[in-house]
Design brief:
Spore Coat Polysaccharide Biosynthesis Protein SpsA, Chain A, 8-stranded mixed beta sheet, elongated, alpha/beta, 11 helices
């Protein structure tokens, strides 16, 4: 396999797809696509750049329309479905032997693509970037991120590498495996680890954004973190089961002690304050456990509705027939409107 990959790369016959999620990146888009094209032409004759406009409220889509020609394609989602859905849309529509996921804000270094390709040539099916320096973030965010990944690793059966994001290269068989996952609430970092395959991480330094600001606020990050925990572990449910069992045992022994003490020694039942504290404690435990159950029930509720992961408004510069990769796997047949 590595020899055939080396032959494909050396002859520039490998088909490379680049998936670029776009949300309010109008100021970056033209320069970014130009730089990405210049890099891809060094490695492949056949390539495609798929821009996924994820409900931008600036003129990102207009800029994308101007760029959408030749090997640059554009998908416009009907609203902002989130980055996970935008990446999923790109994976559903790409046709390459190799798929590269990269952001349009220049924080993922384009000059790392040759190293990704080198590792693919050596036989790795997935090559991902690892953020080696988070000094650009606040100490609180770095602390929470570190503890989150440690907690997630301790409760999950899969190994999610800390500081490894969506910047990565995927072999076609990895893309096919990801596309076979049908859950609506998608946590892509977990899915990358869950599908497995031979993989390796490459450290890189996150560059400052060329223009604009990130749309990831604390609320969206917290929502994504909860999705990651509930999608890949049922440990929270088990923890509250053990907590409930422990408290029930404590309550049983406490009630037995009060009964014996009152019956044998004639000691009166403790007063109002202790009763109220006990009631509040148990109410708090019950509400917390209901909250944890609610998170899992909400995921079940969203899954059983069977709504699509995303809705496409327009597809620009996509051919009507399937593209053919070296694996001879056609693109998924979809019926969204095309331009």
């Amino acid at each position: 396999m590595s020899q055939s990959r080396e032959l494909l790369l050396n002859s520039k016959q490998v088909f490379i797809s680049c998936i670029v999620p776009v949300h309010n990146e109008a100021a970056n888009l033209v320069d970014f696509v130009t730089s990405l094209q210049n890099e891809l032409t060094k490695h492949a004759v056949t390539y495609e750049i798929i821009l996924i406009d994820d409900g931008s409220n600036d003129n990102s889509f207009t800029k994308g329309l101007l760029l959408a020609s030749g090997k640059i394609r554009l998908i416009k989602l009907s609203r902002n479905f989130g980055k996970e859905a935008a990446l999923t849309a790109g994976l559903d529509h790409c046709s390459g032997d190799i798929v590269i996921l990269i952001d349009a804000d220049f924080q993922h270094p384009i000059n790392l693509i040759p190293e990704f390709l080198k590792q693919w040539k050596l036989g790795y099916d997935m090559v991902y970037g690892i953020c080696s320096n988070r000094d650009h973030e606040s100490w609180l965010k770095r602390f929470i991120t570190k503890k989150y990944y440690h907690f997630l690793k301790s409760i999950s059966k899969i190994n999610m590498v800390p500081n490894a994001g969506d910047f990565r290269l995927l072999d076609r068989k990895v893309v096919n495996a990801l596309n076979s996952c049908n859950e609506r609430n998608r946590y892509m970092k977990g899915l990358y680890a869950w599908v497995g395959f031979n993989n390796i991480g490459i450290p890189f330094t996150v560059a400052p954004r060329a223009h604009g600001k990130s749309s990831w606020n604390f609320a969206r990050l917290a929502e994504l973190a909860i999705t990651g925990i509930t999608s890949f572990s049922n440990v929270p449910l088990r923890i509250w089961s053990f907590i409930g069992f422990f408290i029930a045992c404590c309550a049983f022994f406490a009630a037995s002690w009060i009964f014996i003490k009152t019956l044998v020694l004639g000691v009166e039942l403790p007063g109002y304050a202790s009763i109220m504290v006990t009631i509040f404690f148990f109410c708090g435990v019950q509400l917390c456990s209901i909250g944890v159950l609610g998170e899992y029930i909400a995921k079940i509720f969203n899954e059983v509705k069977q709504r699509p992961k995303y809705i496409i408004d327009q597809k620009i510069n996509f051919s009507s027939g399937p593209s053919v990769s070296m694996y001879n796997i056609p693109n998924k047949s979809l019926t969204e409107p095309q331009v």
